[in-house]
Amino acid sequence: MKTSASRTATMSTYRSRTRPPERLRFDAANDAPAPSGEIIHSRDGVPLSIRPIHADDVAALQRGFSHLQPEEVRMRFLHTLSELSAPLAQRLCQLDPEQELAFVLASPAGTAEPEIHGVARAYIDPTTDSAEFALIVQRRFTGQGFGSRLLKRVIAACRARGVQEIWGDVLTENHAMLELCDEFGFRRESVFHDASLTRVRLAL
């Protein structure tokens, strides 16, 4: 039988093999693309940038939210939300770098009134080494691979931080989101307390 000390040593060795050291985890998680981001174009020629969210994106995030249809908001937040208040927008833009990350589909740098057209984010639970994610892209930019690009960034950033699993709750009627998750290899599960939701999980 292993002693308490030997079990502790074994667990320490196991964790060191499965997770990068804290310093490396932090460095990898913040090894983000340049602030200007990756420049791409929509099918109708609109220039866009995929980049990490910035603390000063508050007004751009609110502009983007104002152009969402009520149904789009419900699909993302799982309930109705009539407006994105300044305090909530600030909270969504000013992340805790230890536990949160987010990437946006936004107007390129230098735009007079920039707007955020899509967001993918994750909240990392350091206790379980899992991360809950969420994703939304404005309807005018769906079907062009932008959601896939954003989700890929989030998954890569979570993996760099040593996250073991990424998961999210999706409305069962949100077929487009569920199909996107299928493409990435997420498995679907029922949510026992709410038949309207499907939980998706991806082991990293």
Order of helices and strands: HHEEHHHEEEHEHEE
Count of helical stretches? 7
The domain count comes to: 1
Tell me the Rg in angstroms. 18 Å
- Main beta-sheet strand count, sense and barrel state: 8 strands, mixed
Assign an overall shape: globular
Q: What's the CATH architecture name?
A: 3-Layer(aba) Sandwich
Average pLDDT confidence is 84
- The CATH topology name reads Aminopeptidase
| Helix-and-strand structural type | alpha+beta
Percent of residues in helical segments?
Answer: 25-40%
- Give the distance, in angstroms, between the N- and C-terminal Cα atoms: 32 Å
Number of strands: 8
CATH C-level class is Alpha Beta
Strand content: 25-35%
Strand ordering within the main sheet: 1-2-3-4-5-6-8-7
The low-confidence runs, each spanning 5 or more residues with pLDDT under 50, are: 1-33
CATH superfamily, by name, is Gcn5-related N-acetyltransferase (GNAT)
Quick rundown:
It holds the Pfam family Acetyltransf_1. Helices cover 35% and strands 26% of the residues. The protein has 204 residues and is of the alpha+beta class.
